[in-house]
Amino acid sequence: MPRLKSFRLTKELVAQRAKDNVIIVTFGNFAFMDFILTWVKHLTDLGVSNLLVGAMDAKLLNALYWKGIPVFDMGSHISTDDVGWGSPIFHKMGRQKVLLINAILPFGFELLMCDTDMVWLKNPLPYLARYPDADILTSSDQVVPTVVDDRLADWKQVGAAYNIGIFHWRPTPPAKKLAKEWIDMLLADDRIWDQNGFNELVRRQTGPAFDDESGIFYSYDGNLKLGILPESIFCSGHTYFVQALHQQFRLQPYALHTTFQYAGTEGKRHRLREAMVFFDPPEYYDAPGGFLSFRPSISKSLLLDGEHNLESHFSLINYQMRQIRSALGLASVLNRTLVMPPLWCRLDRLWFPHPGALLGSMTRQPFLCPLDHVFEVNVMLRDLPAEEFGPAINIREYSFLNNPFLPQRVRESWLDVQLCQEGTEDCHASSNTSRPGLLRFPKRSSEETLKKVFSSFKDVKVIQFSSMQDAFLGFTDKTREEKFRKRVKQYVGIWCCVENHIPGHIYYDMYWDEKPGWKPVPPKTPEDDHPPF
Question: Which residue of 98, 151, 399, 431 could cross-link 456, Cys pair, CB 3.0 to 4.6 Å?
Fold first, then answer.
């Protein structure tokens, strides 16, 4: 390992990595190591090598160096743990980004600055080079489309915040002046969020347009030429996962940023896994004990009939939730990792009141929604104490079995389980398959029968049930049942938010079907405002 001073950020270090005078940079601490490896892998798979990673702690610096990833020391000595959104360390990390911009621009290189919770799906450099007159090209949180092709967004229609998770800086005097004023603002008041500070400065005066064609416009008191990257192909968590704008417009996306999600870092990681763009180690795809999956059954009426409203949305979610509850119990009994099913929603989820889908957006109803719209992914993946919550139940994303990284040995070790009525043809509680790879198994079988029969298939990597209807009736041991119930009650979150009511959120309830007359209504009083456990 070379001495620490050889990892300092210098003009010479950047020059070694830059290509066509452009450098692509991200940074983070050791808690985001897997995000950083994913970020690097996507770029290098695209043939892009002019990148650098800033290490905020010695542990990450050491790990990246030994993996052959170009890294520099940020000397910030941030904790190696995950930092929550909005925490003091989160704000400190944000300031490090602005310090980095101020450090690199004087070197004379163009800088594509990225957060670690985004991935590149297409080489962005040719796109950015189409707009050489722009001082800055930035992404945004815009959810209502402003263009339907790959032009820059229509700046007059972008009302949402400019998002600093993806933005490209050129080393021009206006850009340098903005960077300096931005860092001075942040260092003078540690309560200002870096993104809010950027937006405040840049939006101080917007317009006029730079020309009639490019989509570039003047901003920052008329001194800086700014372009806003199109929301359909430089995607937020909403335009990619909820609206799928790139699919609707038949465009190839350049970038995916895991904004608009509800389960912290674990939720971001899970979303990237759902999209099959996260880089996991081989052992992720071959878990001890094997995997359990099932084919969810949803009627056309639940999915499509009637209006898209609270009642129809919760009826659809609750129907799926009951199947998932059974699958979690079955996975626990068989000690297998549950592959979650695709989840369908009728209504969008946000942080504020809305009519079910954002006006002007292209959200299709119903839509395949991310798991964190309903489930507390961060809680599902948390190490809850077994003495209180029973054994851990590991999960995988719904797309897991379709992932190209799934080994052939897992794909080929498969058992289909067809639930049937005991007494009908070939429907017996035994391990005798009716044909290779197919087991007909009685509905409403006991926990003991499940354990006995499926112990014969402990070496099978994937067991897929045809349905979860009457597949699992509960645990025989009442203490185990209570611990399981306590665990899974915490797995579901809220829907947000109804209009003209405070509070406007509604709690999902894993055991809604045990409460006669249960209805999806927000809490009536502050005392009622708590999860249903």
Answer: 431
Span between the terminal Cα atoms of the chain, in Å: 52
Angle 310-334/478-489 helices, nearest 10 degrees?
140
Residue ranges with strand state E in 170-320: 217-219, 224-228, 234-235, 255-257, 291-294
Task: Encode pLDDT of 352-388 as tens digits.
Answer: 999 999 999 999 999 999 999 999 999 999 999 999 9
Cα–Cα distance for residue pair 505/477, rounded to 1 Å:
35
| Element housing 329 (H / E) | helix 310-334
Asked whether the beta carbons of 378 and 266 are under 8 A apart, the reply is yes
* ∠ Cα 233 313 368 (to 5°): 30
- Tokens read off for 178: 């903005």
In a 10 Å sphere around its CB, with 0-12 CB exposed, 13-18 middle and 19+ buried, how is residue 516 labelled? Answer: exposed
Could you give the C-alpha distances from 97 to 105, 181, 193, 195, 377, in angstroms and in order?
12, 14, 12, 11, 28
Adjacent-strand bridge partners of 114: 166
Integer CA distances (angstroms), 188 to 37, 56, 133, 191, in order: 34, 22, 32, 9
Residue 371, helix vs strand vs coil: helix
Specify the long-range contacts of residues 518-523, CB closer than 8 Å, at least 24 apart: 519/311, 520/310, 520/311, 520/313, 520/314, 520/495, 522/497, 522/498
3 state SS of 40: helix
Residue carrying the six token digits 């190591």:
33
Cis preceding linkage at 420, omega within 30: no
pLDDT at 89: 55
Structural domains for the chain: 1-118 (3.40.50), 121-160+172-260 (no CATH), 261-528 (no CATH)
> pLDDT for 327-345, tens place per residue?
999 999 999 999 999 999 9
R_g over Cα of the chain: 26
Write down the pTM of the prediction. 0.95
Tokens of 146: 């402003």
d(C-alpha 105, C-alpha 330), whole Å: 56
DSSP SS3 for 234: strand
Q: State phi, psi for 530 to the nearest 5 degrees.
A: -155, 155
